[in-house]
Every structure is written in C-alpha cells, then in structure tokens.
Design brief:
Keywords: Autocatalytic cleavage, Cytoplasm, Decarboxylase, Lyase, Pantothenate biosynthesis, Pyruvate, Schiff base, Zymogen
Shape: globular
Organism: Portibacter lacus
CATH class: Mainly Beta
Subunit structure: Heterooctamer of four alpha and four beta subunits.
EC number: 4.1.1.11
CATH architecture: Beta Barrel
GO molecular function: aspartate 1-decarboxylase activity
Number of helices: 1
Strand order of the largest sheet: 2-6-3-5-4-7-1-8-9
Order of helices and strands: EEEHEEEEEE
Helix content: under 10%
Length: 130
C-alpha cells in the first residue's frame, strides 16, 4: 500500500508577480525547483501565509537565478506581489517507508535566494531568524 507524503516545500517565498491574463499555474525560478526537487508540470499545493488562501496548480519553469515566483491566471486571484507563500510538492511512498521519510525544506531570503536546505525531521520546528 502507498500513501501520499510531503516531498518538498519552498517555505515563505515571496510572490514577485501576479498575472491574471495568463491561463494558469505558478512559475518558479528553476534554481528553486532544482533545490526542492520540483519539476515542470508537477502538481503543487500553494498556501498563502499572507491571506490564508490555498490552491492546487502546476509548475512552469522560470528563469534560472531570477528569484521569480509568478502567480498566473486564476492563481493570481489568490496571491499578489509581495505575498509570502509556501509551495508544497508530494510523492507516493510505501506505507512501510513513511516513518523514515524526511521531506526537503527550502528556506529563502526576501529575494527568493536559498539560505538553507534541510530534511524535516519529525517533530522538529523550523524557524527563520532574519
């Protein structure tokens, strides 16, 4: 039997643009995608820490090194430029592996540059001191 678990998380990244005129999705800097083991067209959950909204969409590859996080189309109704969001990706694993599974957590600065990468250990709290 398999279960869905958190694979990786981009924690508190800043939305750099919201474009209603686009058809949909979220565009993520390719460097951030690589760090978080996220892939173009992958399904992701987006939780807006600024306004509390949540949505499910898919990833488009952004310009490498740009720090861009673009909310496109309908997703732009859930976040505006400057909002802090969490982007979560999931994977299926055997239930027997769930206890040892440790998702990747990516921490960024205000410009969406990576300042930390760690495996989330069960019951460990992650904090960012700016």
């Amino acid at each position: 039997m398999k279960i869905e678990v958190l694979k990786s998380k981009l924690q508190q990244v800043n939305v750099t643009e919201a474009n209603l005129a686009y058809r949909g999705s979220i565009t993520i800097d390719e460097d951030l995608m690589d760090e978080a083991d996220m892939h173009e067209w992958e399904l992701v959950h987006v939780n807006n820490a600024t306004n509390g909204t949540r949505l499910i969409t898919y990833i488009l590859k952004g310009r490498r090194g740009s720090g861009e996080i673009l909310m496109n189309g309908g997703a732009a109704l859930h976040a505006k430029k400057g909002d802090k969001i969490h982007i979560l990706s999931f994977c299926s694993i055997k239930k027997s592996k769930a206890k040892s599974h440790e998702p990747i957590i990516i921490l960024t600065d205000d410009f969406n540059k990576v300042i930390g990468k760690k495996r989330q250990v069960k019951n460990e709290k992650i904090s960012i001191n700016n």
